[in-house]
């Protein structure tokens, strides 16, 4: 099990930027694919972005392509989500997740989750 702690959430104006961080502790972080998910008020949790370990290939939800960037620093056991051009519909609690193996957009694929960090985008 990997412990994940998100940070960097807050209140931002539409069109603004925010960078989320997820600090991981544990023995196997370097072998884990990482993902970001979000859950907006009154909605189901949804996939945002994921990144592999080996080649750091990334995959994004259509709703955030071109605006969000996922990255990781394996040496520092940290994954990031740079969010640009934020929209009000981006208001949500953002969660990072970790799993052994390749990337996945599926919530059920990830056994390790952080507690989330709240992002509020004002219009």
Q: Main attributes?
A:
single chain, 123 residues, mainly beta, seven-stranded mixed β-sheet, four-stranded antiparallel β-sheet, globular
Provide a concise account of the structure shown.
This protein has 123 residues and is an all-beta fold. The protein contains no helices and eleven strands. The chain has strands spanning 3-7, 10-13, 18-25, 32-39, 45-51, 58-60, 68-73, 78-83, 92-100, 112-113, 117-122.
The number of strands is 11
Based on secondary structure, the structural category is mainly beta
Query: Spans with pLDDT under 50 lasting ≥5 residues?
Result: none
- Helix proportion range: under 10%
Helix count from the secondary structure assignment: 0
Main beta sheet strand tally, sense and closure: 7 strands, mixed
Spatial shape: globular
Strand content: over 45%
Span between termini: 39 Å
Radius of gyration: 13 Å
The helix/strand order is: EEEEEEEEEEE
Mean pLDDT across every amino acid position = 94
Describe the overall structure.
This protein is mostly beta strands and 123 residues long. Helix content is 0%, strand content 52%. The protein is built from no helices and 11 strands. It has strands at residues 3-7, 10-13, 18-25, 32-39, 45-51, 58-60, 68-73, 78-83, 92-100, 112-113, 117-122. The strands form 2 sheets. Strands 2, 4, 5, 6, 9, 10 and 11 form a 7-stranded mixed sheet that branches. A 4-stranded antiparallel sheet has the order 1-3-8-7, with no helix packed on it. The termini are far apart. The mean pLDDT is 94.
SSE layout:
Blueprint: E1 3-7, E2 10-13, E3 18-25, E4 32-39, E5 45-51, E6 58-60, E7 68-73, E8 78-83, E9 92-100, E10 112-113, E11 117-122
Parallel strand pairs: 2-11
Antiparallel strand pairs: 1-3, 3-8, 4-5, 4-9, 5-6, 7-8, 9-10, 9-11
